[in-house]
TrEMBL record:
InterPro entries (UniProt xref): FAD-bd (IPR002938), FAD/NAD-bd_sf (IPR036188), RIFMO-like (IPR050641)
Residue ranges of every copy of the FAD-binding domain listed in the record: 5-360
Keywords (A to Z) from UniProt: FAD, Flavoprotein
Organism: Nocardia panacis
GO MF term set: FAD binding; oxidoreductase activity, acting on paired donors, with incorporation or reduction of molecular oxygen, NAD(P)H as one donor, and incorporation of one atom of oxygen
Signal peptide range in chain numbering: none
SUPFAM superfamilies: FAD/NAD(P)-binding domain
Cofactor: FAD
Coiled-coil blocks: none
Name by which UniProt lists this protein: FAD-dependent oxidoreductase
Length: 510
C-alpha cells in the first residue's frame, strides 16, 4: 500500500474542489485533489453561473477566460424569482451578473488552470475513510491499484451533496426534505414552430410559457433554449407514486409522460440534436440542508458538501465557488505561517450565513411554485411587490449573495462587502488588482511607510478613481477596512485591520 504526505487533500474534483485547488496554488500551497471518477465529470448540471461569483471570477481573470466579455461582467437588466421577472435597470450597480457555461466545460477549464498551476489530481481515487489526531488526518483511498493512504494536515470535503467527508466526520446536516416532489429533466427536441421569438415556447393545447421557470396548475414547467440544446424540466408535487423504480434509468418517454400530466396536452418530445452534453435525469425529493459546521478541526466542507438546495434560479455555484475563494486564501495564509489565530474560523462565520440565506430563498421560490389558489394569491401579491424598486433591489442582493456584509470589525459602509466595480484613473478595472490573490491596500495618494510592517503580505497601490480614499481589499475581493480620509501610516484602525486579517506587523520579516 502506498503512503504519501501533503498539506491539503481535497476530496472531489468538481468545480468547487478545483477552484479551491487553484486558489491554494496561487498562494504557493500545493494541494492534492482526489477524485473517484476516472476523469473530469461530463454530467450536465449547471448551465451557467449567476450572482456575485461572476465578479469574483473576474478578479482572477477567469470570467473572460471562461467565455465572458473582455470588459468583465455587466449587471443583468432583469432576473427571475420563482418564475417572476423583476427589473434591475434602475439599480446603481446591479449585483446580478451571469456567465453562461455548461458545468462540464467549467470543470475542464478549472482543471486546465489547476494543472497549469501545478496541482496534482489523482483520478479514480475514492476517499473511503479517515482517522485523525492533533497534527494530521490519515486518509484512506481506493485507488486503481489498490488501497492508498495519504497523510494530510487539512482535509477538504468538496465531494458533493452526499459528501463522504461530511458523513465520516459526523457533521450534522440539518434542514428539510420535500418528500413527494419528483423532478424530471433533460435535453430534448421540440417542433421548431413551437418556439417563440422571446425565447419561450407555445405548446398547442397548453399555452405559452416563458424562458425559465413557469408555474402551472399541476406543477412546474422549466423551458430553456441553451447553447447545449433545448432543456425541459417538469416538477410534480406529491408525485412519488409516479416513480416505478428509483434505480431505473430515466427515459425521454418518462419525461414526456410527466410533461403531458402537468401541461395537460400532447408533448411529443424528440431525442436531442443540440451539441450537448445531454442531460436526462430524475430527482426524487428535494433536500434543503446546510451543514451545522463548515469546520471540524482539520476538516473543512465547501460547495455542495456543505449545502444543498433546489437548483431554482441557479444559485449553487455562486455559493460554492465563493466558499472556495473564501477558504483558499485563509488556509494558505495559515500554512504560509502568517494567519492570525482565528482566521480559519472566519470561514464558517462568513460563509455559513450566506448558505442559510440561499436555502431560505430557494425554499421561498419552491414554495411559490406549489399548487393551489392560495399560492396563486401569494404569487399575485409577490409580483406586485417585486415592481417596487426597493423590493427588487432587496431580492437582487439576496440572490447575488451580497445582501449581508461579512463582519470585518470595521464599520465603514464598504467594509464586509465585495469591493464595488470601478475603473482606476489609469484605466485598469479594480478586478485586475486581484489577479494574483494578494491583499491590496488601495490609496488615492502616496502615504510614506503605509503598511510598512506587512511588505511580505500586502501590496500597496496608489491610484485614483476608488469610491473611498483608502480601502484594504482581501484576496477574495471583500473590503476588510475603508476610510473616508487618507490614513496616516500609523492609523490605529488600519493597523488593527491589517493585524486582524493578515497577522502582526513584520511577523515573517524578523
Ligand atoms: C440539474 C441541476 C442543475 C443545476 N443548475 C445550476 C445552475 O444553473 N447554476 C448553478 O450555479 N448551479 C447549478 N446546479 C448546482 C451545481 O451543479 C452544484 O452546486 C455543483 O455541482 C457543486 O459543485 P461541487 O464541486 O461542490 O460538487 P460536485 O459537482 O458534486 O462535485 C463533487 C465531486 O466529488 C467527487 N466525489 C464524491 N465522493 C467522492 C469520494 N468519496 N472520493 C473522491 N471523490 C468523490 C464526485 O465524483 C464529484 O466529481 C445545478 C445542479 C443540478 C443537479
Amino acid at each position: 500500500m502506498s503512503e504519501n504526505r501533503t498539506d491539503v487533500l481535497i476530496a472531489g474534483a468538481g468545480p468547487n474542489g478545483l477552484m479551491l485547488a487553484c486558489e491554494l496554488a496561487l498562494a504557493g500551497i500545493s494541494p492534492v485533489v482526489v477524485e473517484r471518477l476516472p476523469g473530469p465529470s461530463g454530467e450536465p448540471r449547471a448551465n451557467g453561473l449567476v450572482g456575485s461569483v461572476s465578479r469574483v471570477l473576474d478578479m482572477r481573470g477567469l470570467y473572460t477566460e471562461f467565455g465572458g466579455p473582455a470588459e468583465g461582467p455587466k449587471p443583468l437588466p432583469y432576473y427571475i424569482f420563482s418564475g417572476m421577472a423583476f427589473d434591475m435597470t434602475g439599480m446603481d450597480a446591479g449585483p446580478m451578473a451571469a456567465l453562461l457555461i455548461p458545468q462540464p466545460e467549467l470543470v475542464v477549464k478549472l482543471l486546465a488552470r489547476a494543472t497549469e498551476l501545478g496541482v496534482q489530481v489523482r483520478w479514480s481515487h475514492e476517499l473511503t475513510g479517515f482517522t485523525r489526531d492533533d497534527n494530521r488526518v490519515r486518509v484512506e483511498l481506493d485507488g486503481p491499484e489498490g488501497p492508498v493512504v495519504i497523510h494530510t494536515r487539512y482535509l477538504i470535503g468538496a465531494d458533493g451533496g452526499k459528501s463522504a467527508v461530511r458523513k465520516l466526520a459526523d457533521i450534522e446536516f440539518p434542514g428539510s426534505t420535500a418528500e413527494g416532489t419528483v423532478t424530471r429533466f433533460g435535453h430534448t427536441d421540440v417542433p421548431a414552430a413551437w418556439l417563440t421569438p422571446d425565447g419561450g415556447i407555445e405548446i398547442p393545447g397548453a399555452g405559452r410559457f416563458r424562458f425559465g421557470h413557469n408555474r402551472v396548475e399541476r406543477g412546474m414547467f422549466v423551458f430553456a433554449e441553451l447553447p447545449s440544446g433545448t432543456m425541459m424540466a417538469i416538477q410534480e408535487f406529491d408525485a412519488a407514486a409516479t416513480v416505478v423504480d428509483e434505480d431505473a434509468p430515466m427515459t425521454l418517454a418518462e419525461l414526456r409522460e410527466a410533461a403531458e400530466r402537468v401541461l395537460g396536452a400532447e408533448v411529443p418530445l424528440q431525442p436531442p440534436t443540440g451539441p450537448g452534453p445531454h442531460a436526462l435525469r430524475r430527482l426524487v425529493g428535494q433536500n434543503t440542508r446546510v451543514a451545522r459546521h463548515y469546520r471540524d478541526g482539520r476538516i473543512f466542507l465547501i460547495g455542495d458538501a456543505a449545502h444543498v438546495h433546489s437548483a431554482i434560479g441557479g444559485p449553487g455555484l455562486n455559493l460554492g465557488l465563493q466558499d472556495a475563494v473564501n477558504l483558499g486564501w485563509k488556509l494558505a495564509a495559515h500554512l504560509n505561517g502568517w494567519a492570525p489565530a482565528d482566521l480559519l474560523d472566519t470561514y464558517h462565520a462568513e460563509r455559513h450565513p450566506v448558505a442559510e440565506r440561499t436555502a431560505m430563498h430557494s425554499l421561498a421560490q419552491s414554495g411559490l411554485m406549489l399548487p393551489g389558489p392560495e399560492t396563486a394569491g401569494v404569487r399575485a401579491l409577490f409580483g406586485e411587490l417585486l415592481a417596487y424598486p426597493q423590493v427588487a433591489a432587496h431580492i437582487a442582493n439576496l440572490l447575488a449573495g451580497t445582501d449581508r456584509p461579512y463582519d470585518t470589525g470595521d464599520n465603514h459602509p464598504l467594509s464586509g462587502r465585495l469591493v464595488p466595480d470601478f475603473r482606476l484613473g489609469d484605466g485598469r478595472r479594480v478586478a485586475e488588482l486581484l489577479r494574483t490573490a494578494r491583499p491590496v491596500l488601495l490609496v488615492t495618494d502616496t502615504v510614506a511607510d503605509l503598511a510598512a510592517g506587512w511588505p511580505d503580505r500586502i501590496e500597496v497601490i496608489t491610484a485614483t478613481g476608488a469610491p473611498a480614499p483608502a480601502m484594504l481589499i482581501r484576496p477574495d475581493g471583500y473590503v476588510a477596512w475603508a476610510a473616508d480620509t487618507l490614513p496616516a501610516a500609523d492609523d490605529p484602525t488600519l493597523r488593527a485591520a491589517l493585524t486582524r486579517w493578515f497577522g502582526p506587523a513584520n511577523s515573517l520579516v524578523a
